[in-house]
Amino acid sequence: MRFNSINFYINGDALTWVKDNCIHSGNSFLATLWWSWRSRNMSCLDNNNLSLHSICFQALRLKNDLDLGFPSPPNATPIPRMVHWSRPNFPYLALNVDGSSLGNPGPSSFGGILRDHTGRFIFSYSGSIGISNNLKVELSTVHQGLKLCWNRGIKKLICWSDSLDIVSLINNTATTTHIYSSLILVIRDLITLDWDIKLLHTLREGNACADFLAKLGVANTIHLVIYDSPHHELESMLLVDAMETPFVRR
């Protein structure tokens, strides 16, 4: 169910989480969600604590009942979902970040881009951390992006990452034993500085510019490159995002 943060419903994108799980897990997700909620209410209201085994059994039975009552039509065509860049509300700025690891582990690079509520380019960056993995490079791009924004005096910021795992790790307070806990704590220290910042999840179709910059970083031998004007191949992508042109998520 990809739910591993106690602050998920405060900092996460709950609607996206529910929709994605309904699409990919269907009745299994709905049955598990229902019995998780019901067991919580039984514990709080009736002091009736169900065992984990009992919750799983009840969820499985409900899932089977749902499968019988609402069978999927044969060869059903899924309804495509339209996704576009998430425009921030004024006066917030939007920082889109992404990481790429070719081979995981393998050559790993990152990128990010800052824009205002009109889609106007402010700055972007890309870089490489050498041989690493997806988790480390996704954390690294958040770290670099937040540090650059803070140093430029940004006071209101929404940071978008298409890695739900990273968003959950940073927003979750119980990660002191994680392999990258030191980097996570540095990012949290940045977040707690004197500014208004949110770290949220976006879908990859709405994160195309950051994805381009992350892949651009593979060619860089320099740890970090900052661009004060957009890369020529990025200009058309910026226009597409500013117009909120939707892309199909399959």
In short:
The chain has helices at 8-11, 14-25, 27-46, 52-69, 134-151, 164-171, 181-191, 208-216, 235-242; strands at residues 81-83, 93-101, 106-115, 121-132, 156-161, 196-201, 224-227, 247-249. The chain has 250 residues and is of the alpha/beta class. Pfam families: RVT_3 (PF13456).
Please, could you describe this protein's structure?
The protein is an alpha/beta fold. It folds into two domains: 8-79, no CATH class; 93-249, Ribonuclease H-like superfamily/Ribonuclease H (Nucleotidyltransferase, domain 5). It has nine helices and eight strands. The longest helix is centred in the N-terminal third of the chain and has 20 residues, at 27-46. It starts with 7 loop residues before the first helix and ends with a strand. The model has no long low-confidence stretch (mean pLDDT 87). Pfam families: RVT_3 (PF13456). InterPro entries: RNase_H-like, RNase_H-like_dom_plant, RNaseH-like_sf, RNaseH_domain, RNaseH_sf. This is RNase H type-1 domain-containing protein. GO terms for molecular function: nucleic acid binding; RNA-DNA hybrid ribonuclease activity.
Can you tell me the CATH superfamily of the largest domain? Answer: Ribonuclease H-like superfamily/Ribonuclease H
CATH architectural name of the largest domain: 2-Layer Sandwich
> Structural class of the helix and strand makeup?
alpha/beta
In CATH, the topology of the largest domain is named Nucleotidyltransferase, domain 5
Taken from the alpha-carbon principal axes, the silhouette is globular
- Strands of the widest sheet, in order across it, are 6-5-2-3-4-7
What is the percentage of strand-forming residues? 15-25%
Give me the count of strands: 8
Q: What's the main sheet like? A: 6 strands, mixed
Written as H for each helix and E for each strand, in order along the chain, the element string is: HHHHEEEEHEHHEHEHE
Helix content: 40-55%
Low-confidence stretches: none
- The average pLDDT value, as a whole number, equals 87
Termini gap: 19 Å
Number of helices: 9
Rg computed from alpha carbons, rounded to a whole number of angstroms: 21 Å
The total tally of domains equals: 2
CATH class bucket of the largest domain: Alpha Beta
